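Form P-L/3: holo structure prediction, ligand BES.
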Amino acid sequence: MEFFVTLAGPAKQRTACAIVGVYDKGTLSAAAEELDKRIGGRIARLVKRGDLRGKQGDLVMLADLTGAPVERVVVVGLGGRNSFKRKQYRKALASALGAVARTSAKDAVSYLGVDGVGDADAYAATRIAVEVVGNSQYRIPDHKTANKRQKPTLLKFGIAVSGRGDRGNAERAIGHGEGIVAGMGLMRDLANQPANVCTPGYLAKAARNLAQQHRKIKVRVLNEAECRRLQMGSFLSVTRGTHEPAYLIVLEYNGGTRGEAPTALIGKGVTFDTGGISLKPPPGMDEMKFDMSGAASVLGTFKAVATMDLPLNLVGVVPACENMPSGHATKPGDIVKSMSGQTIEVLNTDAEGRLILCDAITYARRFKPEVMIDIATLTGACVVALGNHLSGLFSNDDELAAALEEAGRRADDRAWHMPLGDEYGEQLKSNFADFANVAGREGGAITAACFLAKFTDGLKWAHLDVAGTAYLTGAQKGSTGRPVPLLVDYLLNK
Ligand code: BES
Ligand code: MN
Ligand code: ZN
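OUTPUT (holo model):
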């Protein structure tokens, strides 16, 4: 897909499909008005007849037009002028794209943002358009044998802006939007694969592919023997039950100046989480193939950053393994020693994410990062607390938390700042080791974050629990690509 910015109105801009909006009570947007004058008032007539009221979701397509260089027009209802904000803008564009996709149009131009989007400037509105259009073309890499879905026919997409001064910002937004779409696409491709395809080795291969595609990315993959030499007893305790080899994948993106402290991204890469000996119940267990979403979001963010060629340094650490029960598996009550030297009583083998992340956090310290951010489908408790709309955000640094929260808001990929605290941390007490890996049902997302905090001392750190946001279930089952938009926005604003 190729994107471009245009300042020309629909009376002048040649296209196979112009997308224009009508507000409620049939008020034509400026672009609809301009076009309507040229095509003999056909839009106004629809309004007059009562066939187009401009409510959100209304959709009409006109073809066989004379008077303007457009082959088709998709008219979409925008709702109230004052309530037309980024959410309504996304929805209107998405439904218009549905109509465009049913035609043979190879190109289209959207005028939906020209009159202004309540809470988005030209940059934000253009980036949203690129994300919506780009993501509408995403296809799950399915394994269906029949009815191979066709490639989308739309190849070129124009985004109209109103003022000359907006052109530069809109063009910058296109570059950023394309990076985000590429990153989300990679994340979704990885997370949507079944666990018998997307193994720890597959993730390592995906990281190596990234390094091959982008000159500024370097990858190193540590095998289990190397992790043992590093004394990653906690990480290795999780992989004991499986035959699938585990890897610690380490990525570096060097776009900043030499010696500039990097941002470290650490992603949970459990390619399948059965729970281990603390076996999960069968319903919905297939969804635990998504338990590597944190890892996938790290690779996706690297892809985005490299695509945009951002001037910063980034480190990625991805502990990748399976959590399986077997005769070799770690048992409840087993005590393991983490790379940090701290000992952990494994009371529940299903609380495995923190066991692999703690060693990855300790490992990341060697890069002397400015900040560390881990991303993990860590707890069901976080889903109970926040549902599927917001990610859980925890941090030992309020400024970092605020920056990430702000990034989530700007990127429409929100996170909610949750508390940490000694009261919660104390729930992890053990009679047999430095602490346990679980602390009871209450405040489960917070005690999990407190566990991770024990491995960060002295470093700025944030934790994103994306158990509720990284993928959807039910009819929409699949990876969402979140929190790539949040992470990329954070890095863009650094
Ligand atoms: N991967 C799960 C968390 C999860 C649950 C993600 C539901 C997505 C949806 C994690 O490894 C896990 O099993 N956590 C346990 C922790 C508990 C044993 C303290 C949980 O949340 O039940
Ligand atoms: Mn688990
Ligand atoms: Zn898990």
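COMMENT: The two ends are 28 Å apart (CA to CA).
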